[in-house]
Amino acid sequence: MWCLWKVRNEKLFQRKEGSPVQVSFAAQAITNSFKLETGHTNLCKNKIPMQDKGEELRQGNTIDASKLSTQNTFFTDAAWNLQESQNGNEGAQAGIGVYIQLKQGYLNLQASISATGMIAISAVQTEAQGLKLAANLLESLHIQEAAVLTDNLTVAKAAAARSPRKEPGNWQIRSYIADFCAMTEFKNIQVYHVNRDQNSIAHEAARDLYFYV
């Protein structure tokens, strides 16, 4: 009801049009975040240290990915352009890319994954979809400890806060952040922001599929 009221007021007083899809995303996000709010802060206290000085990093901040000591890293990115949608008011589909680095003993395993995202109404929403895909992969691979890296600072800080109702970052990504937190609740998963030059492989993976959606 609040979402409908908000869209009504924006149309009356700001002459701003709001699509049914936007209302649906907002309502779903608020509902999911209220279900999640308790019990997601314990893992935030566990930090992955830098190798050089052993200093603990604060999740959500910008880091140098090469200095993480974790054995497993998941880089995520998205490629999206609303202008290329045939019905721009309803959003556009994105290409999602995840680049995985796993260390098993003396073996270094690497994989690049491309996926088609859901209909999104903004770029930040597609970036959050990439984060959720990483959580799905963590579950499928039964990985309990990893660093998830994104080049979107809003998404990184929202996921690191693990409080989608109070600190969603952006209302459009609240449901994705809630899902990510729920899927990684009992794992030691850290979330950080990286510069784009360190996220190039995930970006290329996203672009590979972006041209086909």
Automatic annotation (TrEMBL):
Pfam families: RVT_3
GO molecular function: nucleic acid binding; RNA-DNA hybrid ribonuclease activity
Source organism superkingdom: Eukaryota
PANTHER family recorded: POLYNUCLEOTIDYL TRANSFERASE, RIBONUCLEASE H-LIKE SUPERFAMILY PROTEIN (PTHR34146:SF3), POLYNUCLEOTIDYL TRANSFERASE, RIBONUCLEASE H-LIKE SUPERFAMILY PROTEIN-RELATED (PTHR34146)
Protein known as: Uncharacterized protein
Organism: Aegilops tauschii
